[in-house]
Amino acid sequence: MQEINIKQNQNLPLQFFRLRPPNFPTIRLSQLATLYTTHNNVFSKIIKTNNIIDFYTIFKIEASQFWQTHYTFNKESKKSKKQLTKSFIDLLLINTVIPIKFSYAKQQGKNIDQDIVLLLEQIAPEKNSIVSKFNSLKNVADSALQSQALIQLKNEYCDKNKCLQCAIGNQLIIK
User: 170 to each of 130, 151, 152, 167, how far by Cα in Å?
Assistant: First the structure.
């Protein structure tokens, strides 16, 4: 068995700057540790799960007892439950779980495109400046599927001034 030698300078320092305490990396790491200790074979569960309710059940976790009264190692704070919120779970699903499921299925030679689309349709749309600006023109994002499409549209067409290659841009220019 090969010995692993971790040197101090190989560890990245935790970044707390511009984060609200519930989002501190210490809290998120504790929640991740709880996820791994609560669920055996968490990767397999995530890969097999296609129902949004089941995902919420898997990710219904909270930080360990120590972190109920701490945000950092050194300073005690008022006791509070530090569990993952529904909106945070939605972000985890959109930005981590779904891409992993999709990539893993592709690597296995499986087509789960329809399952991914159905899952994205069940998740609330992301709340960010891109989606908000599109929705201020016309409320179009009713699900994560649509909000992800709007983000892709902005990044690949609007930001690159490709209005003539964009069906929506063409419609706006013609009018």
Answer: 20, 18, 17, 5
Question: For residues 16 and 111, what is the distance between their CA atoms, to the nearest angstrom?
Answer: 40
Residue with tokens 């360990």: 64
Please tell me the predicted confidence (pLDDT) of residue 8.
58
What's the pTM value of the predicted model, to 2 decimals? 0.83
Paired tokens of 69: 């009264």
Q: What share of the chain is helix, strand, coil (3-state, %, to 5)?
A: 60, 0, 35
Instruction: Dihedral sign for Cα 29, 119, 112, 95, please.
Output: negative
Rounded to 5 degrees, φ, ψ at 14 are: -70, 140
* Backbone angles phi and psi of 70, in degrees to 5: -145, 150
Asked if 122 and 93 count as a contact pair (C-beta separation under 8 A), the reply is no
Neighbour tally for 116: CB within 10 Å: 17
**From the first residue on, what is the mean pLDDT of each consecutive set of 10 residues in the chain (175 residues)?**
63 81 90 92 94 96 91 90 94 96 96 96 94 88 94 94 85 74
d(CA 140, CA 163): 19
Unique residue bearing structure tokens 């690159």: 160
